[in-house]
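The instructor's notes for this session suggest beginning with a concrete chain rather than abstract definitions. Hand out the sequence below and ask the class to guess, before any prediction is shown, which regions might be ordered.
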Amino acid sequence: MRLLARRVIAVTAAALAGMLAVVAVGCGAVPLEHSQFAEIADQLGLTSLIPIVAGEVWMNPAVPDADNAPGAATSDGNSAPASDGPDGGGSESAGDLGTPGPALGAADEDAPATQEGEEAFAGDDATAGGSDGDAPAGSDGDVLPSDAESPADLPSSDAAALNGVYVLGLEGASAAVLAPYLSNPDVDGFSLRAGWSDVEPADDAYDWSQFDAVIEAAAAHGKKVMLRVLPGLRTPEWVYEAGAARFEFVDDNPNRPTYGEVVSMPLPWDPVFLTKWSDLVAAFGARYAANPAVTLVAMTGPAAGGEMHLGDKSNADRWHDLGYSNELLIDTWKLTIDAFSAAFPNQHRTVAVANPVLFDNPAEVRAAVAAYCAESGCGLQGNWLAAKTSPTGDLYQQIANHAAAAPVGFQMLCSATQERFGGELMTAVDLALEAGASFLEVYRVDVAEFPDAIAYAHEQLNLTSE
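After discussion, reveal the predicted structure:
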């Protein structure tokens, strides 16, 4: 793991030595063509090259005016999504994408709903039929490699070990809060989330307290655990102080306390960020890869949060000025998948698919990442499932087609108690089953409000493992 990161830094050192020329222009820089970097990468035996010099060359790029920030409408005319709390549903919440706040499990269960899954960025609408965002229909990479690994070939000792219903929002929960879920036979496990700034508040100084007690309790009661650490907007400040390039943009989510303010995430291919993140992933794996209660790990990294979305995702000119290309982002995701696969060889691993940007055919990125996941024995998931989700949508179809290669699953868009869920929880469960899902992430409130649907989901998801 650390060797992988060091190889990225070796490329950066070569850039500083003159192998890779970056011409600074005022506050920005002009990168070389990606083909030149690819040629050097081949010479060095690298599968990916990070063509950027870390530090102030890329620091604090111009931030668009709030009036021009994406969010008023998406490219297909849908209104911009809004974030939810972990219990209320939908997004991995303001706590995941905005300023650090209370523990994720402590969010208000009346949090407003979002248009899509974990992320609160404009563009994707998995509930609509046909193509999502501006991705061309039929270009979402439904065709998987013919030699893709089957679930039985996955590195986990039990390919069906992850099956079932996972409850969101219990990270850091007290014994009293956990008790009804631990005793509920229809709850198969817990989906736990934390920000990078929470688990590594200082360089190489870790705090796993949001996970440890809950995992211990889950193991004692025969429950499973899914883990997710979020970088992006939850990146600790010390990473930037170490030289990582900061990408700033205006928060277009009216349900976060930072709405209308400038927020930041690391530039996804920045070598300092990738090195620090790969170190975190290695420590993450060292902590939990040998724990049999941990069955599933969400692969996160070059994005604003837990899905593939980037910030300011409609601003093609700005991203291109920073060196963006589909090929570069794909290579960065491949590095991320390799890092998680090395750190968690015993767990199932997933990427939450989404359109990272709204230009340059983002379906190409999704297709390539999905294909690499299949080659690596990794699954996909969609964090936007609702009763109103269309089974003909590109994102839904991409996940359904991936089920032949590796386990797939869904996180609910929001609680089914909310109007925008679009119907009954049972309907969404059936949609998941039709797509071949092995697991579902559901919100705490729905376990109490819809016990019949939770029992049905538990039964059907576990039938597929027999």
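Then share the key points. Residues 271-288 form the longest helix (18 residues). The chain has one domain: 64-463.
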